[in-house]
C-alpha cells in the first residue's frame, strides 16, 4: 500500500496534473445541481481537483477531507476548509451539505465493508435532495486494449471495490438513487511500459493487481521488454455516477447546519 503522506509531494506530477484535474472537476460540476451551496470532497488528496471544483462554481462553498496528513496539508494550501478525516467516519452532522464528491477513492478501499461505509457516510451527511458524485470502475478505465493491459491480465485482482453494480447497491441501501453519469478523459494517464514497470515496483497498482512473492519483479521485467518502452499508450476515460438523496415523505428540507469548517 502506498504511503500517501510521502506521495503528497509528487502525487500531482505523476497523476496527470492540472489537465486531468480540470477534466475531472468539469465533469463533476456537470452533475452537481446549480442550486447546491455546499460541497464536501472526501478523499480529496492534494486538493487539485477540489480547488478546480471551487473555481468552477464561485458561489459553491467547497470543503475537503482526507485521511493522510501529507495530502490534507497540501490540500489545505489550495482550499480553505480541509479536515483530516477517515471517509468512513466523517466528522459532520446528518444532512449537513448539498453535495458530496469522491474522485478516485472507492477503488482503493479493498478492506471488506469499507466502500459500503463510505457510501453510507456520504448519504448520511447529505441533505434530502442532495447529490453524491463518485468515480466508479476506476481500474477498468485503464484497460485500453494495450500490450500493457495484456501483461497485467494474469494478475488482475478480482471484484473491484468500486464496481458500478456494487456502488449502486450500496447507494440504494442508504437512500441514494442514480441520478446521472458522465465520463472524462484522464489526461496524461496513458502509460508507457517503463512507467508501468516503475509503478509495479513501487506498489502503485495495489487496487488493480494481486501480486505476491516475486510477481511484481517478474511483471516489471515483462513490461520493460515490451516494444516502444517509452511510447505512451492511450489515455483512459473515467466514469462518474451521480446519486440523489431521497426526500423524506412529508418533511421539508432541514435547516442548514453551520458546523462545517470555515474557509
What top-tier CATH class of the domain at 4-138 and 159-189 and 235-245 fits best? Alpha Beta
* Strand order across the largest sheet: 3-2-1-4-5-7-6
* Alpha plus pi helix count: 10
Reported CATH architecture of the domain at 4-138 and 159-189 and 235-245: 3-Layer(aba) Sandwich
Fraction of residues in helices? Answer: 25-40%
Strand content: 15-25%
Structural shape? globular
- Using the coordinates shown, work out and report the CATH topology of the domain at 4-138 and 159-189 and 235-245: Rossmann fold
Residue windows where pLDDT falls under 50 for at least 5 positions:
251-263
| Count of distinct strands | 7
Which series of helices and strands comes N to C? HHEHEHEEHEHHHEHHE
Largest sheet, strands/sense/barrel: 7 strands, mixed
The name of the CATH superfamily of the domain at 4-138 and 159-189 and 235-245 reads: Vaccinia Virus protein VP39
Whole-number radius of gyration? 19 Å
The pLDDT mean sits at: 90
What can you tell me about this protein's structure?
The protein has a domain of 177 residues: Vaccinia Virus protein VP39 (Rossmann fold, 3-Layer(aba) Sandwich), CATH 3.40.50.150. Strands 3-2-1-4-5-7-6 form a seven-stranded mixed sheet, sandwiched between helices. The protein is α/β, with parallel strands linked by helices and 263 residues long. The C terminus is likely disordered. It starts with a helix and ends in an 18-residue tail after the last strand. It is 33% helix and 19% strand. It contains ten helices and seven strands. The longest helix is centred in the N-terminal third of the chain and has 13 residues. α4 links the parallel β2 and β3.
